[in-house]
Every structure is written in structure tokens, then in C-alpha cells.
Amino acid sequence: MKTVDVSLEDVEPPDWLPDVSSVAAFTLEAVSISNYEVGVLLCTDSRIADLNSTYRGIDGPTDVLAFSQDEGDQVPVESSDGLRGDVAISLESVQANAERFGVGAAEEIVRVAVHGLLHLAGYGHEGVTLSDSTAGKHPMLALQEQIVEALTKEQKE
């Protein structure tokens, strides 16, 4: 099964919003996951702050959160039931990040969506924050940027 359900909560889809379900499908195929049921929630800083507080015990908003339905399981293999989970993305944080990093909002939402999906797929970057000077050398974050670059190139064609 290949399912990506994108929903919006208290936000209107901005004109720069790419096809998030295509981003998800491309990302999961890039990491050899062909069986998945993924939900993507596009929401406000307020909503993601509630989720961050409830599930991570961290006050305040963030750009992306990932919630696996199979918490603690390894990356799915063909013989498994596949990947199941949800990703929440704050469109407000995406826009703020885009301005801060000097990139387009469409590129930034692709980046945070890929980031959240990689977490769902079992990838992590423990001990490395995105602001670390060596972040780009971390395997997950390097993979993230490879996928973002491939998606950006594909969208321009």
C-alpha cells in the first residue's frame, strides 16, 4: 500500500505549497520503502507547540515532528507491514526558517518534510543539531540534502 494523506488544520494552503504527497512518495522511495501509510498535517505554530509539549515535553513550536505508529521498530523491510506514521509541519515555522536561511518557502517545506519522513523511516541525528557546523556531514542530514536537491531538480524539470 502507498498512501499519503495530507491535511490542513487552521491554515489555508499557501500559493508556494508544493505537492506534499509527491514529496513524501519520492522521499520514501529514495530510502527503499515501497509500502507505507503516512499522514502529513500542515498546521500552525500553536498546534505544533501543543503537540511538542504533549509528546516531547518541550515547550514551544518547532518546524516538524514525526510520530511513528511502530515506535521502536527498525526501518521496515519488504516483508514487513511497511511504514506507518504521521508528520506534523508548522507552515509558520517553515516560512520563518525560509527567511532565516535565505531560501524559498517551497524549498524549506520540502526540507522539513524530508526530515520528518526520514525520522519516520528510522533515521536519526542524535547529538547533532542542525546549526552545528558539521551537520551536513551527518549521514541522515547529508541524505536529507541529497533528497532535497533531487526533488528541487525534478520540480524544475
Provide the descriptors you would attach to this structure in a database record.
157 residues, Collagenase (Catalytic Domain), 4 strands, 5 helices, single chain, 18% strand, alpha/beta, four-stranded mixed sheet
Summarize the structure in short.
With 157 residues, this protein is of the alpha/beta class. It is built from five helices and four strands, in the order βαβαββααα.
Describe the structure.
With 157 residues, the protein is of the alpha/beta class. It has one domain: Metalloproteases ("zincins"), catalytic domain (Collagenase (Catalytic Domain)). The protein is 43% helix and 18% strand. It has five helices and four strands, in the order βαβαββααα. A four-stranded mixed beta sheet has the order 1-2-4-3, sandwiched between helices. Helix 1 packs across helix 4 and helix 3 crosses helix 4. The radius of gyration is 15 Å and the shape is globular. The two termini are 28 Å apart. The relative contact order is 0.17. About 4% of the residues have low confidence.
